[in-house]
């Protein structure tokens, strides 16, 4: 892949070294077109923001990918669900940012998770990912002055990631590395296939919830309740589960093709315009693995 830097990206090169240690100054160095690009990425779902970040910093931060996926992403989705009053994951449409108050809640939950003794493997393994404990007042000031890159009073997942890993990343450098790099067709196809799996999961879970509620009516007695119990017992052999299994098979094939075609993409860490698809491919595989674990055929 060519290492040449586009004219647009060159406009933000002067800001690459600014803000390695955080602070409002590094947010002020974004040129208008770079800020427009940043906003475009920040408007995408939390997961797509994470993929863009990992693509840009795969060489430096691939070791933290599991924490970003399993802990940070899970926690920011939980915070967003909490704010929206959604309790069931399958009913949640992934968001893209949080207001400052929910941002405080996100950091609070993240810190609690990392401090919980039962999660001790994470601080020991993902040192770069550990959040710094702060008072609510200090945290809010930090969010306003150092995290909120586009000054919109909201916190995107991308802003959290750039702030958390500020020893390796900053907004200007992220834009320089990422601008002008479109999602590869097979990677997009695999991502859309996994989104189709999400739709099938929702349909399956909604039917399961409906049958569960019906089976509990009148103390679980009566024709309707007994019929629902019977249907619930057979749901994993029904058409909704069959459609879900087919979607998983299609997604697995699409992910395999994307990895075969784009895996091992060349790039030079820290060099302007360097880009990798490794973050996207890792995320696709990890998400597929999680979906198969939860909804794939069970080993006998």
As laid out across the biggest beta sheet, the strand order is 1-2
State the domain count.
2
Q: How much helix, percentage-wise, in residues?
A: 55-70%
Distance between the termini: 45 Å
- Structural class from helices and strands? mainly alpha
Net shape: globular
Detail the poorly predicted runs.
Answer: 1-25, 266-274
Portion in strands? under 5%
Tally of contiguous helical segments: 13
| Strand segment tally | 2
**Rg:** 22 Å
Mean of all residue-level pLDDT scores: 88
What string gives the helices and strands in order? HHHHEHHHEHHHHHH
Biggest sheet statistics: 2 strands, antiparallel
Notes on the protein architecture:
- This protein has 13 helices and two strands, in the order ααααβαααβαααααα.
- The radius of gyration is 22 Å and the shape is globular.
- The chain folds into two domains: 8-178, no CATH class; 185-295, Methane Monooxygenase Hydroxylase, Chain G, domain 1 (Up-down Bundle).
- It is 61% helix and 2% strand.
- The chain has helices spanning 7-10, 32-42, 46-61, 65-84, 100-115, 121-125, 136-147, 157-164, 171-178, 185-215, 223-233, 239-262, 278-295; strands at 97-99, 154-156.
- A two-stranded antiparallel ribbon has the order 1-2.
- It has 300 residues and is mainly α.
